[in-house]
Design brief:
The chain is mostly helical. It is built from ten helices and six strands, in the order ββαααααβββααβααα. It has helices at about 30-45, 50-55, 65, 75-80, 105-115, 155-160, 165-175, 185-195, 210-220, 225-250, and strands at about 10-15, 25, 120, 125, 135-140, 180. A two-stranded parallel ribbon has the order 1-2. Strands 3-6 form a two-stranded antiparallel sheet.
Length: about 250
């Protein structure tokens, strides 16, 4: 191996931990980049030592045991049904797409930051009163028997901060108070629901149209690389969870 790194001029690569010599850990460069992102995000550091310990100290050792229980994508499970060879199936093309450098992804973020962001609400309430000959806009619906109408705007916003997008959708169906939504709400939903979109964490909060960006990302799964990134991220998150457990049990470094 050139150049010699850390005093090692040659390394043995193996899927099993009973080989002799200086052993290397096999990984795809793009998968390792995603590991670095997940580890930094979840653990606060890039825990290579923990990764090494987890991989080589699972029962029986090696990648065959290490991969058990990972939330593998259906395309991966389907493609590995035959142990002797990979099955190429239609619909699994994203497995070969680059999950780091995604064509068209930069332009998508540029579009969300090119215009002034929403500073108020999206889906403003449009109500036609019984005595009105035309429709008038209201920030909140007229008083009804709905108990949520008694909440202030601040309390309603605080309530939304604890709910998932699915819960918010259900709440909006049950009470018109929540039909208008603060635009900044979509920043939280984006970061929580799609943590693999690490580019979003670096955007300027006040200069981004978070609602527009959220909608575009929810509908852009034609990006094969983004599909692959999400797939790898979910597997790596489970790996990092196991590393954290090893750390908590005091096993790493022993």
């Amino acid at each position: 191996m050139e150049p010699i790194r850390h005093g090692a001029g040659s390394i043995v690569f193996s899927n099993f931990n009973y080989v002799v010599g200086i052993i290397g850990l096999l990984f795809h460069p793009t998968c390792f980049e995603i590991f670095k992102k997940v580890s930094q995000f979840r653990l606060g550091n890039i825990d290579v030592e923990g990764l090494w310990y987890w991989y080589w100290h699972v029962p029986e050792g090696g990648s065959q045991e290490a991969s058990i229980g990972l939330p593998h994508d259906y395309a991966v499970k389907n493609g590995t049904e035959l142990l002797c060879q990979w099955q190429h199936e239609p619909g699994s093309e994203h497995l070969a797409a680059n999950p780091i450098e995604i064509p068209g992804f930069v332009a998508l973020f540029s579009e969300a930051t090119a215009h002034r962001s929403y500073s108020g609400v999206v889906f403003p309430w449009d109500y036609k009163g019984p005595n009105n000959s035309h429709r008038t806009n209201h920030s909140t619906p007229p008083l009804t028997s709905d108990p949520f109408t008694k909440l202030s705007v601040e309390l309603s916003t605080m309530l939304l901060a604890y709910l998932s997008s699915k819960d918010i959708a259900n709440l909006r169906l049950s009470s018109p108070v929540f039909r208008p939504l603060p635009a900044m709400l979509f920043r939280r939903l984006l970061l929580e629901e799609m943590p693999w979109i690490w580019e979003a964490r670096g955007l300027e909060v006040g200069k981004t149209n978070w609602y527009k960006l959220y909608c575009m990302l929810k509908s852009c799964w034609l990006f094969k690389g983004l599909q692959n990134r999400r797939r790898i991220w979910k597997d790596v998150e489970e790996v990092v969870r196991r590393i954290r457990k090893c750390r908590q049990e005091g096993k790493v470094g022993t």
